[in-house]
Amino acid sequence: MRIPIYQIDAFTNEQFKGNPAAVCPLTEWIKDDLMQKIAAENNLSETAFFVKKDNEYELRWFTPKGEVDLCGHATLASAYVICTYLDENSKDINFNTQSGLLEVSKDGGLFTLAFPSREGRKCDAPEALIKGLGKVPKEVYKSRDYMAVFDTEQDILSLELNMDELKKLDGFGVIVTAKGKEVDFVSRFFAPKAGVDEDPVTGSAHCTLVPYWKNKLNKNEFVTLQLSERGGKLYCTDLGERVKMSGEAVAYLEGYINV
Asked: From the candidates 14, 28, 41, 46, which is the catalytic residue?
C-alpha cells in the first residue's frame, strides 16, 4: 500500500518555523493501529489522516502515543494540502471530527479555523503542576488541559520543567500563559503523556486561552505568540461558542509511505 504524505509547517510562512504536521490523504480508512504506527514513525506532534466524503472530509489526528480529539495546526496543514495539491479551487473546507464540524476558510495565503470554545474552570493548582512547572502560578484553570497563568513573559520563558511530574496530571496537556509585551498574550504548551514534551504552536490550546483573555483584557480580537523554540503567531477572535484563529502554512516535504 502506498499512502501519500505531506509535511507542512503550520502557523508560519517560513520553513523550519511554526508547527510541523504530517498529513496523509486516504481514499478510505485504514486500520487504527496502522495510523498509530505511522504517527509514531513520523514522530511529529501530530499526523492527520482524512477521507473525502461527498463535499466534506472526515479528519482524525494522532500523536506518537495516541489519537486526540482536537488539533489546530494539523487541521490547518490538512486544509493547506487540500487547497495546494488536491483541489486548488477550494476556499471553504468542512471537516467532520470527534469535536464536531470544523470549518476552515482560505483567503489568499491565510487560513482561518473556527473551533469550539473550551473555557476553563478555575481550580486549585495540583502539586504535580507546581512541581512540573517549577513555580507557583497565580491562577489555574481546567478544561481538556490545565492552564496556568503567570504575570510576565519572563515567567513563561524561565520555567524549570519536570515532564515526569506533568505526566501525573489528569488532563491531556498543560497550557502556560501571560500577558504579552508586544502581543496580547503569550503561551507555551506541554503534553508529555502524548509523547510531545513541548508543542511548537498549539491551535487547540487557544480554544481555552482566548475565552480567558477575552475576560481579562475586555476585547474580542487578539494577536498571540507561542514562545516555543520554533515560535508561532496566531490571530484569534472570540465568537462566543466558537474561537476563530488564522495563520499561514508552508510545505516542507511530499512523498509516499510504503506499508
From this structure: 46
